[in-house]
Amino acid sequence: MIDAHNTIDEFLARRAADVEEALREAAAQEIMPRWRRLAEHEVDHKSGPHDLVTDADRKAELYLTKTLPALLPGSVVVGEEAVHANPASYEAIRGEAPVWIVDPVDGTRQFVRGEPGFCTLVALAHGGVVHASWTYAPARGLLATAVRGRGALLDGEPLHSGSPEPGSELRVAVSHPDYTTDEQKRALLGLWTDGVAPRSCGSAGLEYLAIARGESDATAFSWEAAWDHAAGLLLVEEAGGTHLTRAGEPFRITGGNTLPFTAARDAATARRVAGLLSDGS
The domain 4-158 belongs to what CATH superfamily? Predict the structure, then answer.
């Protein structure tokens, strides 16, 4: 049995740049050549009309599934497309091995439409704790990274989320109604109040990056899939923000959260949004 915590710390000290290179190569080989060039047969639907998957998603995930465990022997991959094919593989997030949590194309709808609002998300976790994350938006030329306890960077420069301007409306990205239950819809209605400006969310990864950059104030999301949240939540934390579920607890990537939940630029904003979600229910 490997000592996972020490192994991860040593790995990040020595080979974090190799992870960045893997993301760039996956995008260069499998994602960007298909952007704005997708053929009809390269786009499929999974569980519904808004749940798209493309050859770029599948092939980029296969590339990362081969590359990342080779960088950290003993680690495993939980990827969105592999879990769709075999839901039981999601359990590795709760297992004993270090796990790479991969969303090969976060924002597939935007990708299919030829828009630049998509990214590749990778998080390295163990025992339910995210130790490092990478958010790569190749069409925008942005790479954000975070290491637990060591801060967040955007293209090598420190990220600081800051706090909303006193008295300003809170800019909150909200789950698409198609991905919410009736109970969650009622909770989200709590955000339609004075002092809050809710809007539909885009790519979850880019919404988290916007919070870490101080360009948005908070999210209100209603689903738990770790590949959408693990990387961004650590990025927000290390930039100075935080996250809370509707029950007032930190979000857990292992599941069992009271939804919806929020990530926000600072603790006061997180408490305010979580309170509104609770009041709305």
Answer: Fructose-1,6-Bisphosphatase, subunit A, domain 1 (3.30.540.10)
Task: Show pLDDT as tens, one digit a residue, over the chain (281 residues).
Answer: 345 557 899 999 999 999 999 999 999 999 999 999 988 777 777 665 556 778 999 999 999 999 999 999 999 999 999 999 999 999 999 999 999 999 999 999 999 999 999 999 999 999 999 999 999 999 999 999 999 999 999 999 999 999 999 999 999 999 987 778 899 999 999 999 999 999 999 999 999 999 999 999 999 999 999 999 999 999 999 999 999 999 999 999 999 999 999 999 999 999 999 999 987 65
Question: Which CATH class for the 170-280 domain?
Answer: alpha beta
CATH 3.30.540.10 residue window(s) in the chain: 4-158
Please tell me the pTM assigned to this model.
Answer: 0.94
Amino acid at 228: D
